Amino acid sequence: MNKRSITVIPGDGIGPSIVEAALTILDHAGCNFHYDYADAGLMALEKHGELLPQSTLDLIAKNKIALKGPLTTPIGGGFTSINVSLRKHFNLYANLRPVISFEGTQSRFENIDIITIRENTEGMYSGAGQTRAEDNNSAEAMSIITREGAERITEFAYQVARSESRKKVTIVHKANILKSTSGLFLEVAREVALRYPEIETNEMIVDAVCMNLVMYPERFDIIVTTNLFGDIISDLCAGLIGGLGMAPGANIGKEVAIFEAVHGSAPDIAGQNIANPCSVILASIQMLEHLGMQDKAQQIRNAIRKTIAEGKTVTRDLGGTATTTEFTQAIVANL
User: Fold this and answer.
1) Alpha-helical segments (H) within the chain
2) Which of 135, 147, 151, 282 is buried most deeply by CB count within 10 Å?
3) Which of 149, 129, 147 is nearest to 139 (CA)?
4) Measured at the alpha carbon of residue 87, what is the angle toward residues 86 and 89, in degrees to the nearest 5?
5) What is the pairing mode between strands 94-100 and 200-205?
6) 212 burial class (0-12, 13-18, 19+ CB within 10 angstroms)?
7) Rounded distance between C-alpha atoms, residue 127 and residue 142, angstroms
8) Which residues form the Isopropylmalate dehydrogenase-like domain (predicted)?
């Protein structure tokens, strides 16, 4: 049987060790992948003189699927975000950020199960039209929302709701103030919602969403919104389940999909073998689901759930003393 090739970007800081943990688990689950390694971030800058080499882009384009550790973009000096560059280059318009409660994590809530679906290429976050006055007393940026962009992300959200038998989609906006951009997004989202009469649609202003997520997270199922709001909301949701260490992310386009840890590269603990690898492992579960390998995905998720609930061999952030390697081996043992 031919092995499916996946592009693997180990990343910076703790990236290589947590990505290795995820690959170990995929192998033990019998996923039968071939890994093509590629560089990006500071490691690529040192080796190739650029943050995102063409060879890496070519390998992602060839395999169509990539698993990525956290990357460091140097601050200032004209460096643009590598993640934003990847999303633009491959037109990865949908950002999928699920959060699910795991018994045994350090969180205030139980039974959280929310997916934030964020438009990934437009809006305030895209960096369009950024200028600063010569006297340094004012700055500008541009937010562009298109009908096409709003329609495809909302359509994507309702398709996810339908395929996963979810009951409700909340459209998040600020159309009361941002009447042009957020107003267009809301108008188009309403049109799309009419195509899915079996799914309950709710509309909510972004500030009310933040308050309700903290007080009544059970009110939410799928959230769909624009780029900047989605970026903020998805991190808030991660806080509901114990932090970014338990939150994966997927960037999905028509041709290519990139699955990633959403936290930073944590250079302060790099090389110490103490990082929680769950974000990348959960991202690999998203990857399996995208590839139609639901059985393997569920098998790995159950092993993580059992390992954390037992609480015997877990990393520091989960209340234990285990190393990354020990935690990974405990998950393997529970597969």
Assistant:
1) 15-28, 42-48, 54-63, 82-89, 147-163, 181-193, 206-215, 227-240, 278-290, 294-310, 324-333
2) 282
3) 129
4) 60
5) unpaired
6) middle
7) 7
8) 5-331
Position 127 confidence tier, pLDDT thresholds 50, 70, 90: confident
The pLDDT mean for the chain works out to 95
- Whether the Cβ atoms of residue 147 and residue 110 lie closer than 8 Å to each other: no
Burial of 335 (0-12, 13-18, 19+ CB in 10 A): middle
Q: List, in order of start, the domains of the chain with CATH numbers.
A: 1-112+242-335 (3.40.718.10), 123-227+235-240 (3.40.50)
Best CA proximity match to 104, nearest among 274, 281, 312, 247: 312
Reported as a single tens digit per residue, the pLDDT across 231-252 is 999 999 999 999 999 999 999 9
- Residue predicted with more confidence, 74 or 242: 242
- Nearest 5°: the CA angle 227, 153, 142 is 35
What tokens does 40 get? Answer: 């990006």
Task: Give CA angle at 110 (224, 28), nearest 5°.
Answer: 85
Q: For 334, how many CA atoms within 13 A lie in the half-sphere containing its CB? A: 23
Q: Which residues contact residue 39 at a Cβ distance below 8 angstroms, ignoring those fewer than 6 apart?
A: 9, 47, 48, 53, 56
Residue 171's DSSP bridge partners are 203, 224
Q: Name all contacts of 312-321 with Cβ < 8 Å and 24+ positions apart.
A: 314/104, 315/274, 315/275, 315/276, 316/274, 316/276, 317/106, 317/242, 317/243, 317/245, 317/276, 318/104, 318/105, 318/106, 318/242, 318/245, 318/276, 319/104, 319/106
Alpha carbon separation from 88 to 133, 174, 256, 309 (Å, rounded): 27, 24, 12, 39
Query: Does residue 233 contact residue 213 with C-beta atoms inside 8 Å?
Result: yes
* Eight-class DSSP state of 152: H
Token readout for 129 is: 């039209």
Element (H, E) at 115: strand 113-119
Give DSSP secondary structure letters for 190-216.
HHHHTT-TTSEEEEEEHHHHHHHHHH-
What three-state secondary structure class fits 303?
helix
What DSSP designation does 73 have? P
pTM for the whole structure: 0.94
Q: Report whether pLDDT(216) > 90.
A: yes
